[in-house]
Design goal:
Layout (H helix, E strand, L loop, with lengths): L3 H15 L8 H12 L7 E10 L5 E7 L10 H4 L12 E4 L5 E9 L2 E10 L7 H52 L6 H16 L3 H10 L12 H4 L7 H8 L1 H8 L5 H12 L20 H15 L11 H10 L7 H9 L1 H10 L35 H22 L4 H28 L5 H24 L1 H22 L5 H14 L4 H4 L1
Antiparallel strand pairs: 1-2, 1-5, 3-4, 4-5
Helix pairs in contact: 1-4, 4-16, 5-6, 5-11, 5-13, 5-14, 6-10, 9-10, 10-11, 11-12, 15-16, 15-18, 16-17, 17-18
């Protein structure tokens, strides 16, 4: 029989959990707090190991928190430990064998009488619970259910905020897309320029909020071209002085289009109006000088010029990367902010990678990439290694970037950054996957790859799956985060090893075709 003191402490524990705020949706922290109280209740023979698992829309239980086991993304085998524990909803606490020697106490979690999941707590196998113990644990399950319901509501609000912000930014981005369609020779210029601006901003030391603002508004830099006549905008040769004056007016047109009091519109307006201003005051349209020019516009100026110089245009051939870099450095303190030029130089390894990730020409399976090494993540949950190479350098680089985005996504879980950040990265991953799939399929079609139909089907299924996960973030934002991380970790490796690996045939085929044309054979080379 429990002492009066222990009964009071148990009551305090339940009250403490029920009234607990400020968890910041940290379910691992909730388990830590739970065990700190259990330590003061000697009659409860619990062991300091537990998990929380919740139902996904397909009725499967997904681990969303742990204490004493390690995280599944560092050790996926953890999931298999609990596969034999009963998963059917139950109204009251019960015990179940974990394996031949261990036992777990299962606490059912509900929300508005709907099953949410379970808390599994490891206990001493020699502890035989009494009726009063089970009653306490069932009450504890109700308290935990309330906290979990609160966490779900908070995370759902975060997702809703992201959707509202995204809807607002999409309206602005569509203006940028409209301007890009007018000048269709630029193709992926806006995507490259936006990502280049982002890595320059990071190298410059801008905070995350400013970088996110830049990412949303940079595509607006040339929105004023909507107002430029086709005869000038699409002219295949050099513009004369009168035509150039008209072309320059796209900055002021953009400023008028984006006029408004909204933070996004103000930032987009600054970029559209000022990305042709020069550090020394010799630019247009206002002749602004130095720090009178918005820092976002100063960054976009270099990103825009670098991509324009290194890209083909109807009136010019692309510059060599080395020549473009040298020219930008030579304009430091004149056309460009010296601090932004220095950040541009530091970011060059990532900038050169962006050029390959968002290239416009058909991928050449034989191209050898020699990109500078990029600083690796401290945490690599999903590691790309040479065994995953498909023998095509550009495709391998695409895959490495998809791995980087997947690692970013798992970092959200590891650092408990929440559903909003998960939604942001999931959307970025989905958008880049479309760029990658389009480039890959274009290469396959050009080279007559026979398995293109299978690839297109799998690409479509992947895209649909990501959209489904994004929709699930609204309904069960906690489970969806873990579900998508598990799916990506497994799908990427599986798809590369079993489907993309066969792209190696394109390299072999081209080598054979070349040997036939030149009259050489493999045997003649031995």
């Amino acid at each position: 029989m429990k002492s009066q003191r222990e009964i009071i402490r148990i009551s305090e524990f339940i009250l403490e959990l029920t009234s607990m705020g400020g968890l910041d949706n940290d379910l691992d922290g909730l388990l830590v707090r739970m065990f700190s109280v259990f330590e003061k209740l000697p009659s409860f023979k619990v062991q300091p190991r537990a998990i929380i698992r919740m139902y996904n829309p397909r009725g499967q239980l997904v681990i969303v928190a742990q204490h004493g086991f390690g995280h599944f993304w560092a050790n996926p085998s953890i999931v298999a430990l609990f596969s034999d524990v009963a998963s059917d909803p139950c109204p009251a606490a019960f015990t179940a064998p974990l394996n031949d020697v261990e036992t777990v106490l299962v606490l059912p979690l509900t929300n508005d009488n709907q099953p949410l999941g379970q808390v599994l707590i490891c206990i001493d196998p020699q502890w035989f619970l009494k009726k009063s113990d089970y009653e306490f644990m069932t009450n504890l399950a109700r308290a935990l259910s309330g906290l979990l319901g609160r966490c779900l509501m908070n995370e759902a609000l975060q997702v809703r905020e992201l959707e509202l912000e995204d809807a607002r930014s999409q309206a602005i981005r569509r203006l940028g897309v409209a301007s890009e369609y007018r000048d269709n020779e630029t193709g992926l210029h806006v995507l490259r320029m936006t990502n280049i601006a982002g890595v320059i901003a990071k190298a410059l030391g801008l905070g995350e909020a400013q970088r996110e603002l830049l990412f949303i508004t940079a595509p607006m830099h040339d929105v004023g071209k909507i107002g430029i006549p086709d005869s000038i905008l699409l002219k295949p040769g050099q513009l004369n002085s009168e035509e150039f004056d008209i072309m320059k007016s796209h900055t002021e047109i953009g400023g008028r289009i984006l006029h408004g009091g909204d933070v996004l519109l103000e930032a987009a307006r600054d970029i559209a109006l000022s990305h042709h201003e020069n550090w020394d005051g010799s630019g247009y349209p206002q002749g602004l000088k130095g720090e009178d020019i918005s820092v976002l516009a100063r960054i976009c100026s270099i990103a825009d010029v670098f991509d324009a110089l290194t890209s083909s245009r109807p009136y010019k051939a692309p510059w060599a990367v080395e020549d473009a870099v040298a020219w930008i450095v030579s304009e430091s303190g004149k056309k460009f902010d010296p601090a932004v030029v220095a950040a541009f130089e530091r970011a060059l390894p990532e900038i050169l990678r962006i050029r390959e990730l968002y290239r416009e020409d058909i991928i050449n399976p034989d191209q050898v990439l020699k990109l500078p090494k990029i600083l690796c993540y401290n945490t690599r949950w999903v590691e790309w290694d040479q065994s995953l190479s498909v023998g095509i350098d550009v495709i391998d680089e695409h895959h490495r970037y998809l791995f980087d985005l997947t690692n970013d996504l798992i970092d959200v879980l590891a650092n408990k950054l929440g559903a909003r950040e998960m939604g942001r990265i999931l959307k970025a991953l989905g958008q880049y996957a479309q760029v990658h799939f389009a480039a890959e399929e274009q290469m396959m079609e050009h080279h007559g790859y026979q398995r293109i139909g299978s690839q297109q089907l799998q690409h479509k299924q992947f895209s649909v799956k990501l959209k489904d996960f994004y929709a699930e973030l609204r309904d069960n934002p906690i489970v969806a985060q873990f579900d998508v991380a598990t799916y990506l970790r497994e799908w990427l490796v599986e798809h590369i090893r079993h489907e993309d690996a066969q792209l190696r045939a394109l390299v072999t085929k081209r080598q054979y075709d070349t040997s036939v044309v030149t009259g050489k054979s493999h045997s003649g080379l031995l």
